[in-house]
Specification:
16% strand; D-Maltodextrin-Binding Protein, domain 2; alpha/beta; six-stranded mixed sheet; 39% helix
Amino acid sequence: MTETLTLGFSPCPNDTFLFYALVHGIVPLPGLQRPPLLADVESLNSLVRNSCLAISKISCHALGHMRRDYALLTSGAALGRGCGPLLVARRDFDPAALASGRIAIPGNLTTASLLLRLWQPNCHNLIVLPFESIVPAICAGQVDAGLIIHEARFTYAQHNLIELVDLGCWWQELTGLPLPLGAIVAQRQLGNAKVSAIEKAITASVLYAQRNPGAPTAYIRQHAQELDIEAIEQHIALYVNDFTLDLGEEGLAAIEELLGRAAQAELIPPQEGPLLMRTDGE
């Protein structure tokens, strides 16, 4: 009997783009449960932390808490350059007041919140909001500033907000590495053969979408928070890249660097054991 594989990913355009062929049966994966669970990444982080999904998108920050039970997959990740979370505020906000300001974050386990803590450890008044609520909360004066991710990167200026820092640029200047935002993980208990099959299926799904970019459009727009087609296309172009097909040595180094810095700052537990299901030489 084929084992049922539960799958979770976010409704963001890069995820619906890359998983389209897999969830619609164009790329086969025996045992995959359909439909998948679509939820914001912080909800997925919590579900994975409680071992509720066999395969899932999670924040790279969250991986630092879960690597014992979940293996990092080499396909499906969101890494890149110039793609980091932005800290934005109203035009009348004084950046000197940031340390005491109310800052909205899209979840405690998001990579965005980890980057903020690494960049500015003195920011303690952090308020968790759903990512789609952060821009409205800033505009309404409910918070002083906010970390924006996903499509909001491309639309915040329409709300008369200004950028205080691009944490992706800060990371790249600090490390010279691409910024690891999110990744796909699978339960280690599935075993090497099954995890390898999952990786190959995700790679094939990404390739299908890249070769047939119009095919996923309706599915993407069905789930996107921002329906402007230009913003959707910018989002996909930014977050679906060579690292999505294969992390490679540089992608893996970037994730290890992020988790190493986070562990050194005591923001995640000490990091032990391999990230991948298999290690070199196996």
